[in-house]
From TrEMBL:
Alphabetical list of Gene3D superfamilies matching this protein: 3.40.50.880
Lineage start: Bacteria, Pseudomonadati, Pseudomonadota, Alphaproteobacteria, Rhodobacterales
Native species: Donghicola eburneus
InterPro entries assigned: ChyE-like, Class_I_gatase-like, GATASE
One cellular component term from this protein's GO annotations in UniProt: cytosol
Protein name from the UniProt record: Glutamine amidotransferase domain-containing protein
Length: 227
């Protein structure tokens, strides 16, 4: 099975030793041998010729806002709608979560209460999961046909699903502690409030539940639904 990774940003150059690019984080999360992978750098205007170029799709995080005026945003939204209409499996994290919601009729904006960084606890109904976050933007208006599958006091629409073939999370289940530490050092200082960076640093040694989201995404990609 072939998974297409739609890369919507690049990792900071200073963090290349941790992960040269976002696509590799998702490959590590799901397992190099679990699927065949191909990456399209949509942030650079590189798109698949057809949605049948892959059996399922993952949309990565990005430093860009879904609502910003970039030449690749509108074509990406069109592609998302095609993937959705074809009922191909699709997963998005952070920016991926936001752009899927926006393309399917929701609204994304810079959140009035600011940043969420580091390990956060999310209520998935039957369980709570601790996942890393790094965002200021949020989905603030639920898209039609979407259902909320996770939330937190800070993030109302923390994970969404459409039918049994689209699943998105505001959190970054592909980020391990080393990546968060790199973001604190190279993207956070002078941008994110010190108190939030300090809290994120304090939680670097705590366990995360990335593996549970990886399991959900694996089942999604294999057509086994969202559970």
């Amino acid at each position: 099975m072939k998974i297409g990774i739609l890369q919507t940003g690049h990792t900071p150059a200073d963090m290349a030793e941790i992960a040269p690019d976002y696509a590799l984080l998702f490959r590590a999360m799901l397992g190099e041998d679990s699927f065949d992978y191909q990456t399209w750098n949509v942030v650079d205007g590189d798109f698949p010729d057809t949605i049948d170029a892959a059996d399922g799709y993952i949309i990565t995080g990005s430093r860009h806002g879904a609502y910003e005026d970039h030449p690749w945003i509108s074509p990406l939204e069109d592609l998302i709608r095609q993937i959705y209409a074809a009922k191909k499996p699709m997963f998005g994290a952070c920016f991926g979560h936001q752009i899927i919601a926006q393309a399917l009729g929701g609204k994304v904006e810079k959140f009035k209460d600011g940043w969420s960084v580091g390990l956060q606890t999310y209520d998935f109904g039957d369980q709570t999961l601790d996942l890393n976050a790094w965002h200021q933007d949020q989905v603030v208006q639920l898209p039609p046909e979407a259902r909320v599958v996770a939330s937190s006091p800070f993030c109302k629409y923390a994970a969404l699903a459409w039918g049994d073939h689209v699943f998105t999370t505001q959190a970054h289940p592909e980020f391990q502690s080393d990546f968060i530490q790199g973001l604190i050092e190279y993207r956070g200082k002078g941008v994110v409030p010190d108190a939030l960076l300090n809290s994120a640093t304090d939680h670097l040694t705590k366990r995360n539940d990335n593996a549970q989201i990886a399991s959900k995404v694996t089942r999604l990609m294999r057509g086994e639904g969202i559970s």
